């Protein structure tokens, strides 16, 4: 979140406990221009400043002497950092927040790692972060605990309590006890013991902790090789994206060995004579910069070059990074959504990956649970090769979805692919619905509809395709139907391809005061009809397409009748209750999103008569939800959608 002014208190590790309050410049999106490939490529003014800091601060304070810096941790872990969360608080942490935690930490640490990529044999392009445990005061704070989550409940006296209260870094509500670390698994504790086995495997270790403390000031922090210490509210804010990362980045800087610059120019605890090159200060100097700037980047590189040359410190020849990247265009052949834990997605030519369904994705265009079998997507992402877990999605775009079909229409074959993504199906049309795949209800919704066409199936056409002179698509009937094409009344010349249709007296009207004149045609099951050009590109909308069942076509009316919709404002979730359907083998839930009905689950037991959504849905967001029953091996989706309910998250 960008703010005009941020009050920040930045404190260092146990070596640097003096609190400081000052104004920080506004956050900005910065592209750091440093491009040195070796230490000799660092510009002279930056190199002079780096030399001074190294000699007068790093060597004097010995902050990089121990082989436990984040440089050491990243390389020893083959590009993976393993964290535990120490939760010296009684605030609850939801499953969704815990799933977002490693991604938040990963985003932050890679802002530092990006400074090193491509420089002086630095071997890691992307750092993978895992959270491998939780040390807590109260186990009940871990909401919806999963079977594979490790929780430590032993406590000890808080080593920071008295200092925090006396220094103003915290108030009297700071707990006098804190969760005890499982130190037998701590790399920081055992870094110099090469024979330490971490309860049987180096993979059991944790490299650092993130420590959240109740009562600590929200704009303060501590940091060193062991990890970062922040207030519990800051940690939650970082997870939820409501708190900026500059304090966390500062404390991570201490993990690399970088000092605070509390003193004045050239002083023993200060900054280089002449100031920092570039005039932007440093993220390690409270009040001068809120992002990793050019000096910080060069100094991260400079420090690596210094440490790299220490005999025996790094085994660069045997580094095998766990994080990898993938980029491809492929069709989704399977997707298994798990509301808790991790879901799985399989691509036709690129295998199977895991992902958190309610984790780090902040919008539907990066939420894999939004997609379904048959969708072809262009995607690039970072993943952990050890367990194929997707860590971050850089880009994803829907290329096509196959098939576009409904209940009465078995297939929509798009011919003019310029508008492919704007085609869709609404299997139960009613007032308030949209008729175009590229228009929203606030721009163009149905206001008047013939009674005989309430519940008709609508092929959502792209309104913008009115400017195309090409054939647009072909629709294939799944049953004997009457196919309707509605032509904007402002179109002066009826397209020739409508010659086989009969003009009716019926009309459809929309909220933007457009009247569509309906033309009809009987179409037999299996028969296809091509939809041509609109015939007019200006002063009108594209045509609409509807289908209704022929008089001799029956549709079953087996559907679960929804009897109650209950809302939880505390957890932002909804529970649906319905009447049981005789003979149902299972029930399914579908949600209408982006012009398509999307299956959320279809494995609800036949004995169940209710379904509760995941927690922490977006408050204020409105959904259309349908509940269907599977009877004698068939789903009655038409009547389920006919009886769909509209809900708004509270």
TrEMBL record:
Residues 1-24 form the signal peptide. InterPro entries: FN3_sf, Ig-like_fold. SUPFAM superfamilies: Fibronectin type III. Keywords: Signal. PANTHER family: CELLULOSE-BINDING FAMILY II PROTEIN. This is Fibronectin type III domain protein. It comes from Ruminococcus albus (strain ATCC 27210 / DSM 20455 / JCM 14654 / NCDO 2250 / 7).
């Amino acid at each position: 979140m960008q703010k005009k002014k941020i009050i920040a208190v930045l404190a260092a590790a146990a070596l640097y406990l003096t609190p400081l309050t000052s104004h920080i410049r506004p956050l900005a999106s910065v592209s750091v221009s440093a491009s040195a490939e070796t230490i000799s490529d660092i510009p002279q003014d930056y190199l002079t400043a780096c030399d001074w800091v190294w000699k007068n601060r790093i060597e004097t304070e010995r902050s990089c002497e121990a082989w436990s810096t984040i440089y050491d941790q990243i390389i020893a872990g083959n590009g993976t950092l393993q964290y535990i969360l120490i939760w010296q608080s009684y605030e609850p942490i939801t499953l969704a927040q815990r799933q977002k935690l490693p991604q938040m930490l990963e985003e932050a640490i890679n802002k530092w790692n990006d400074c090193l990529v491509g420089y002086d044999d630095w071997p890691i392009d992307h750092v993978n972060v895992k959270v491998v445990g939780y040390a807590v005061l109260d186990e009940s704070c871990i909401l919806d605990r999963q079977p594979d989550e490790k929780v430590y409940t032993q406590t000890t006296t808080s080593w920071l309590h008295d200092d925090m209260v006396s220094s103003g870094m915290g108030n009297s509500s700071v707990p006098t006890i804190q969760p005890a670390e499982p130190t037998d698994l701590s790399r920081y504790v055992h870094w110099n013991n090469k024979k330490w086995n971490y309860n049987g495997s180096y993979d059991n270790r944790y490299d650092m902790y993130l420590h959240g403390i109740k009562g600590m000031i929200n704009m303060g922090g501590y940091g060193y090789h062991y990890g970062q210490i922040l207030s519990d509210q800051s940690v939650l804010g970082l997870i939820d994206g409501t708190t900026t990362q500059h304090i966390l980045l500062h404390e991570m800087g201490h993990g690399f060995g970088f000092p605070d610059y509390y003193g004045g120019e050239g002083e023993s605890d200060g900054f280089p004579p002449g100031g920092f090159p570039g005039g932007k200060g440093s993220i390690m100097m409270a009040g001068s910069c809120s992002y990793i700037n050019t000096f910080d980047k060069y100094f991260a590189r400079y420090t690596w070059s210094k440490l790299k040359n220490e005999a025996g410190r790094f085994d660069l020849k045997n580094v095998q990074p766990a994080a990898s990247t993938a980029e491809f265009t492929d069709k989704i052949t399977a997707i298994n959504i798990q509301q808790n834990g991790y879901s799985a997605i399989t691509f036709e030519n690129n295998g199977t990956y895991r992902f958190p369904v309610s984790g780090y994705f902040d919008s539907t265009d990066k939420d894999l649970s939004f997609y379904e079998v048959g969708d072809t997507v262009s995607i690039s992402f970072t993943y952990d090769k050890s367990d194929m877990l997707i860590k971050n999605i850089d880009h994803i775009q829907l290329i096509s979805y196959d098939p576009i079909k409904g209940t009465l229409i078995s297939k929509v074959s798009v011919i003019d692919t310029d508008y492919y993504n704007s085609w869709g199906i609404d299997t139960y049309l009613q007032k308030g619905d949209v008729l175009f795949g590229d228009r929203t209800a606030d721009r163009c919704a149905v206001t008047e509809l013939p009674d005989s066409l309430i519940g008709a199936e609508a092929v959502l056409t792209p309104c913008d395709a009115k400017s195309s002179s090409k054939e647009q698509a072909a629709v294939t009937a799944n049953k004997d139907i009457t196919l309707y094409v509605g032509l904007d009344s402002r179109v002066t010349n009826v397209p020739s391809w409508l010659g086989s249709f009969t003009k009716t007296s019926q009309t459809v009207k929309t909220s933007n005061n457009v009247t569509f004149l309906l033309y009809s045609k009987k179409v037999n099951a299996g028969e296809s009809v091509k939809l041509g050009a609109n015939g007019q590109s200006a002063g009108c909308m594209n045509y609409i397409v509807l289908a209704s069942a022929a008089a001799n076509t029956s549709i079953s009316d087996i559907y679960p009748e929804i009897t109650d919709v209950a809302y939880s404002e505390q957890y932002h979730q909804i529970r649906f209750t319905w009447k049981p359907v005789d003979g149902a083998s299972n029930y399914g839930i579908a949600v209408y999103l982006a012009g398509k009905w999307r299956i959320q689950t279809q494995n609800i037991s036949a004995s169940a008569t209710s379904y509760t959504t995941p927690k922490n849905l977006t408050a204020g967001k409105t959904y259309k939800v349908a509940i269907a029953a599977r009877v004698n091996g068939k789903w009655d989706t038409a009547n389920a959608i006919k009886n769909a309910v509209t809900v708004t998250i509270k």
